[in-house]
Amino acid sequence: MTADPRPAPGLREQKKNEARRRIADAVIQLMSDGRMDISHDVVADVTGISRRTIYRHFPDREALLSGASTRVRELAGSRVAFPSRESDLLDTVPIYTGLDSIAPIATLVRSTPQGRAMRKSQKLERQESYRAATADAVKDLPEPDRTLATAMLQVLHTTPWLEMRDHWDLDGEQIARATAWAIRTLLDDLRKRGGKPLDL
Where does the record place the HTH tetR-type domain (predicted)? Predict the structure, then answer.
């Protein structure tokens, strides 16, 4: 076993990371409690962390929600991340089993207005990531088909978890198997169709 080449964070960095985690965890808990008034003031009240510190880490509400969204992915496991290449789209087992491991939080994120706002706070980052991961597969398509195909691959990559869990009683491994098949099928179709529009 080789040692991790990255240096251990110093005490100051550890404290910053811990504060960010506490703030993000508080946002997640407030959402779990059904609170609609999530703000820097509310987070300061429940954590005892000063408003100034919270603003330093998360300068606006969008950043606060984005931090919570990142924290949800951390809780689900280190392999739960936005994809950067096509092979990441097919590596769905860690994603779906990760979501299983935090099922109450993952359900909240995907089924409540607060959770949707949290996910939308990273909309541009998500779009950029999936465009990069699908670039080669969709490169010959005309627009807007390139965007449509990328959006569908993104939906298949993470979104089916709640529906397939709730309506079919499937677990993460089963959902991963089904979604990987669907993604492979679409990628194969994209390769074969070349530049033909999606409706041909």
Answer: 17-76
Q: Return the number of other C-beta atoms located less than 10 Å from residue 100's C-beta.
A: 18
Model confidence over 166-189: pLDDT tens digits? 999 999 999 999 999 999 999 999
Nearest to 162 by CA among 117, 102, 103, 118: 103
Burial-class residue 196 by CB neighbours within 10 Å (0-12, 13-18, 19+): middle
pTM over 0.85: no
CA dihedral 46, 52, 54, 58 (to 10 degrees): 150
Closest by alpha carbon to 85, among 39, 131, 18? 131
C-alpha to C-alpha distance for 25 and 75, rounded to whole angstroms = 10
DSSP 1: -
